[in-house]
Design goal:
heterodimer; A: Rossmann fold; Rossmann fold; 3 domains; 24 helices; B: 2 domains; 9 strands
Chain lengths: 655, 202
């Protein structure tokens, strides 16, 4: 893209210069990317929970053993090796422990009780600290980092408000099964329970929204607790683990060594499926005439994309996916059906409703997927594979439950499943294809012009996907923008779609994209956000600039809380209370932060604005002024079933 | 906007469904069956906050605990909880599975339908003076309860037995006037040589 093509940018020259100047100053950055050496940007993915017996799995478990036992091969230098004669304190042990877990970057914000840690952080230059502008941003960034990279994300906040600000992000990671370790400081242990300055019972607060949490009052517990926390966060069904450390634990002398083995008798996830159940499942699959696979986040987490494709191809089964299952199968694969649920594709929901067998893999029958359970998939028997036994039978009764890692279960099951010739399923698949043609029809799609020539959001999202040839990591916020992103961006690569599914956290988009860009610096990163969500966390624009994190922000601005407005229009008789909102002059705001800003208000301007943002070396924001009243269709109203979809009523443009 | 395809069973053509499942009955909602009393035994690590974790989980997941008794076991670092709650079988199974998600929980077992010894202890301070003390003592005796404190106008009856037996005794004593009542909550142990704690011996 040549510079002359950037006709729609506004004031970009100056901002770009600003960004370039800042780049040199930014802490720990190099010309190769945001503070990562070229070798660190390897495309090799490390997975949370790999299947057994695969080379990746072996390498990871070997690596983990090595991390826990052999410090020299990891080249984690002791204080003496760093030429320091001061005693090793809890904060040192924490830094060492993080390095041993392979952490090279974390997101945080300092505070009084964390100062002992910040005092020693400079002695660990291989541990990059990214200073966020709000702790919620740190938690979401750790979340985005974890989902994009497959590693454990780390965030840090101080006691009291710093800790409570992390809670939204921790809850988000909990609901979406994302491995993060959240660190907080607390007041010195003698003041615990005395309502000291900035004291809050944060472990009490995070208890129900973490996989596990710890309160550490002794420096000597830090090595063990950090090792356990990372193991728990990343093993089995991933999730957030919170470690609260008192100031005296961080300051106290630590003589404890890092543990070689972990003693967690109550934490033994079951990875391998029950043989008898798998036999039953294989028999169900062999018998089914209208089977549908429902792929969820678990497929991505367990790195079972190849096994999923193999199963689909071997037994000729179409693959539907949930919101967080986007990317489990290349959307251009002939057996990829599409997204299911409240705002999923009509043909997919129709396929579910007519299926005689659902093969649910690593998903949890969320109410946004099932709708009204009594009418969900009425003809289907259900095979449910999930690593978390508590998910099985929680929302929907199933015929064949299998507790295990999706990858391992599929590997074990594939030989049991008889191959099906494509001709044998041709009639079924053709019927689905027919439904698909009908369901994908819209009169404006492709032209970008919704009613009266207003810019349609789906067109923008589509063009963003195309711009990087569907290779970029696309991080959505929450609301209409999220639904458009999942429907129209077109996902081919696993973990290229990051979205706040379970908690539905507005404000997630920008900070999570920040983390995703740091986690996968080799990939272009786009945040697709609405004007409501961006106003919740826009302060992180400054972090993007200070740390030179090249996130491209597509702001879909309809001057509305769009999904609220949509429900008010369709369900609350047009009683539009508090869904119209003012926003700042976005280009001025971008300029104020030193972020390159561009604007597109017509379909014609969209591609050049995207190209201009992509050409910026650093963060950029594109302000898309979209139609104010465009809704996301189809839509399953709350309390209704997958068969009760509301659809767009096409009208001739009014003149 | 008009809802489309709102016929029951959706836009699906029943002819497509496999012969075995032609009639689409409403899919059952898990946990909505007949509720009855269940007894769960949980073996947990004796760590600070473990009781809070269990209680918080039951609250957050909308399970209603009737009684909860916690104590040490013969292993110093292991505690044992007996939880009684009401719900249908699926709901209680779900509660057990959720308990398993806690890192500090080693073992959970629903012993409702197992042969068990199930007891609780109750201390009942009953109004009793010279006129009716004999009557109270007779009732206590019939329930194999002991009198553990005697005062001019009251006495304390210590009763052990199943929840139903203690309930019955309390109902009888209520007529005399109960001044104070404390119940330990049910504790339970399986009959026979099997041991839930041995299964988690470390």
């Amino acid at each position: 893209m040549s510079r002359s093509d950037r006709d729609s940018r506004v004031g970009a020259n100056r901002q770009q210069t600003d960004a370039s100047e800042r780049k040199g100053e930014a802490m720990g950055t190099t010309d190769d990317g945001p503070g990562r050496s070229p070798t660190a940007t390897s495309s090799r993915r490390i997975n949370h929970m790999p299947g057994a017996g695969t080379p990746t799995a072996d390498a990871i478990s070997a690596g983990r053993r090595e991390m826990l036992t052999d410090r020299h091969r990891l080249q984690i230098k002791s204080l003496a090796e760093r030429g320091l004669s001061r005693p090793r304190i809890g904060a040192d042990a924490l830094c060492e422990a993080l390095l041993r877990q392979g952490v090279d970057v974390f997101f945080g914000f300092p505070g009084g009780v964390l100062l002992p840690l910040y005092d020693v952080l400079g002695d660990y230059p291989e541990l990059r600290h990214i200073l966020v502008r709000h702790e919620q941003g740190a938690a979401h960034a750790a979340d985005g980092y974890a989902r994009a990279s497959g590693k454990v994300g780390v965030c840090l906040g101080t006691s009291g408000p710093g800790a409570t600000n992390l809670v939204t992000g921790i809850g988000n990671a909990m609901l979406d099964s994302v491995p993060i370790v959240a660190l907080t400081g607390n007041v010195v242990s003698s003041l615990l329970g005395k309502d000291a300055f900035q004291e809050i019972d944060i472990t009490g607060i995070t208890l129900p929204c973490t996989k596990h949490n710890y309160l550490v009052r002794d420096a000597n517990d830090i090595p063990r607790v950090v090792a356990e926390a990372f193991h728990i966060a990343a093993t089995g069904r991933p999730g957030p683990v919170h470690i609260d450390m008192t100031k005296d634990a961080l300051m106290g002398v630590c003589t404890a060594e890092h543990p070689g083995t972990l003693d967690l008798p109550g934490f033994k996830p079951n990875f391998d499926g029950n043989f008898r159940q798998m036999k039953l499942a294989a028999a169900e699959i062999a018998r089914a005439e209208r089977p549908v696979i429902l792929a969820g986040h678990g497929v991505l987490i367990s790195d079972a994309m190849d096994e999923l494709r193999e199963l689909a191809e071997k037994a000729q089964i179409p693959v539907a996916h949930t919101l967080l299952g986007v990317g489990a199968i290349d959307e251009t694969h002939p057996l990829s059906l599409g997204w299911v649920g409240m705002h999923g594709w009509k043909h997919v929901n129709k396929a579910i409703q007519s299926a005689d067998l659902l093969i649910a893999l690593g998903m949890r029958f969320d109410d946004r997927v099932t709708g009204h359970v009594p009418t969900f998939a009425p003809y289907a028997r259900i095979i449910h594979v999930d690593i978390d036994p508590a998910e099985i039978g929680k929302n929907v009764a199933v015929e064949v439950p299998i507790v295990g890692d999706v990858k391992r279960v599929l590997r074990a099951m594939l030989p049991m499943i008889p191959a099906v010739e494509p001709e044998a399923r041709a009639a079924y698949l053709e019927e689905l294809a027919g439904w698909r043609v009908e369901s994908e029809k819209t009169p404006w799609h492709g032209s970008g012009s919704w009613r009266n020539g207003q810019l349609s959001a789906d067109f923008v999202v589509c063009k963003i996907g195309e711009a990087s040839n569907h290779d970029a990591t696309i991080v959505a916020d929450v609301g209409q923008n999220q639904m458009w992103a999942a429907r129209y961006a077109g996902f081919r690569r696993p973990n290229s779609h990051i979205s706040s599914g379970g908690l539905g956290t507005m404000g997630f988009g920008l900070p999570a994209a920040m983390g995703a860009a740091v986690g996968r610096p080799d990939k272009e990163t786009w945040a697709i956000v609405g004007d409501g969500g961006l106003q919740m966390t826009s302060q992180e624009l400054m972090t993007l600039v200070q740390d030179h994190i090249p996130v491209k922000i597509a702001l879909l601005d309809n001057h509305k809380l769009g999904m609220i407005r949509q429900w008010q229009e369709l369900i609350y008789a047009g009683n539009y209370h508090s869904s119209h909102l003012l926003g700042p002059d976005w280009l001025k705001l971008a300029e104020a932060y030193g972020v390159a800003g561009f604007r597109a208000t017509t379909p014609e301007e969209v591609e050049s604005a995207i190209a201009a943002a992509r050409a910026v070396d650093g963060p950029a924001l594109v302000h898309f002024v979209i139609a104010e009243e465009q809704n996301v269709f189809p839509m399953m109203p709350a309390g209704k079933g997958l068969s009760d979809l509301l659809e767009e009523q096409f009208e001739e443009p009014k003149q | 906007m008009s809802p489309t395809g709102s016929t029951p069973g959706g836009s699906a053509d029943p002819a497509h469904a496999s012969p075995a499942h032609t009639a689409p009955p409403a899919r059952a909602l898990p946990g909505h069956g007949d509720a009855h009393r269940h007894v769960l035994v949980a073996i947990v690590l004796n760590r600070p906050g473990v009781l809070n974790r269990v209680a918080s989980l039951m609250r957050a997941r909308n399970f209603n605990i009737e009684t909860l008794a916690v104590s040490h076991t013969d292993q110093t670092d292991v505690s044992r909880m007996t939880i009684t709650l009401r719900g249908d079988d699926v709901a209680v199974e779900q509660a057990a599975k959720q308990l398993y998600r806690l890192i500090d929980v080693l073992k959970v077992q629903d012993v409702t339908s197992d042969p068990t010894v199930e007891h609780e202890i109750a201390l009942i301070k009953v109004r009793a003076d010279d006129r009716n003390r004999g009557e109270v003592l007779t009732i206590a005796d019939m329930y194999k309860a002991k009198v553990v404190d005697l005062a001019a106008e009251s006495l304390i009856v210590e009763a052990t037995g199943t929840e139903a037996e203690v309930d019955a005794l309390i109902a009888l004593l209520r007529g005399f006037g109960i001044k104070e009542l404390v119940r330990s909550g049910t504790v339970v142990m399986s009959r026979g040589a099997g041991s839930i704690e041995e299964a988690v011996k470390r």
